[in-house]
Design a protein that fits this description.
Number of domains: 1
Shape: globular
CATH architecture: Alpha-Beta Barrel
Structural class: alpha/beta
Largest sheet: 8 strands, parallel, barrel
CATH class: Alpha Beta
CATH superfamily: NADP-dependent oxidoreductase domain
Number of helices: 10
Length: 298
């Protein structure tokens, strides 16, 4: 277990990304409870997913073991009344209203980690922080963080808030956080919840295609480097992909999108057996890709 920032939350190195869940409550409950039984204690959802149904599925499944798990959800994307899409709303009023709905759907009276689901430098950041701090004082949330890949936004929350985590995309094929953000967060005692560690499966052998700024041939080269290290070390490709992100001390957990029992079995095996890669191994993998830095939101 890793401590999440300076909080009293200790999270499993592999966490359950609930966005991938389907619409069968029985199947969802089975896989979520099995995950908890086998050592995964951190479950990440959002009010945005399936227009709130995802929180309902998670809440129903985990209600009997609520005290044994860590539930994280997100706020800030407001569905339009006609259901045609959503708009960004980080206002204090909206957050204070939304948390009540999330608590109801999750069948709990507190949320372990409440996260802002995005953010721009133009947001009323102090107002957003006020909302989180108030909810913490009220006991409706235990801790808060943000979900963002934007360095300029992250720096503002580091300077102005008491957040304990930042959820961000990070992998061998998206190593932009390595430029400055990961070290900043580590220095400030703020943890990273990693998403996208397998780059949509491209690092695990999915047919190569363009990804972010990388061509399909460049993606293929990175995937081959992962496969080579896995073969030589007697590891799975998932061991290597997760070992890469775990290798940075800022990363507390890597969220995997899990839907099926087979996917869960693989995730549990990695949780129980894989280790962070050594810096020499991470450097070796890094040589397979061009350097990639943030072009905007700096």
């Amino acid at each position: 277990m890793n401590q999440l920032g300076k909080s009293d939350l200790y999270v499993s190195r592999v966490s359950f990304g609930c966005m991938s869940l389907g619409e069968n409550q029985a199947a969802n409950s089975e896989v979520l409870r099995k995950a908890a039984d086998r050592g995964i204690n951190y479950f990440d959802t959002a009010d945005l997913y399936q227009k709130g149904l995802n929180e309902l599925y998670v809440g129903e499944a985990l209600k009997p073991i609520r005290k044994d798990v860590i539930i994280a959800t997100k706020v800030g994307n407001q569905w339009r009344t006609d259901g045609s899409g959503w708009d960004w709303n980080p206002s204090k009023d909206y957050i204070l209203k939304s948390v009540e709905q999330s608590l109801k759907r999750l069948k709990t009276d507190y949320i372990d980690l409440y996260q802002l689901h995005g953010g721009t430098i133009e947001d009323p950041i102090d107002e957003t922080i006020e909302a989180f701090e108030l909810l913490k004082q009220q006991g409706k949330i235990r801790w808060y963080g943000i979900s963002s890949i934007r360095p300029n936004v992250i720096r503002e929350y580091v300077a102005r808030s008491n957040m304990v985590s930042v959820m961000m995309q990070y992998s061998l094929l998206d190593h932009r956080p390595e430029e400055e953000v990961l070290q900043l967060l580590h220095d400030q005692g703020i943890s990273v919840v990693c998403r996208g560690a397998v780059a949509q499966g491209l690092l695990l052998g999915k047919e190569a295609e363009t990804y972010l700024q990388y061509t399909d041939s460049e993606v293929s080269r990175a995937a081959k480097a992962v496969a080579k290290m896995a073969t030589e070390g007697g590891l799975s490709k998932l061991d290597v992909a997760l070992g890469y992100v775990w290798g940075h001390p800022a990363v507390a957990t890597a969220a995997l999108g899990i839907r099926t029992s087979a996917q869960l079995d693989e995730a549990i095996h990695v949780l129980q057996h894989a280790k962070p890669l050594a810096e020499s191994q991470r450097s070796q993998l890094h040589q397979s890709v061009r350097n990639y830095t943030y072009e905007v939101h700096r």
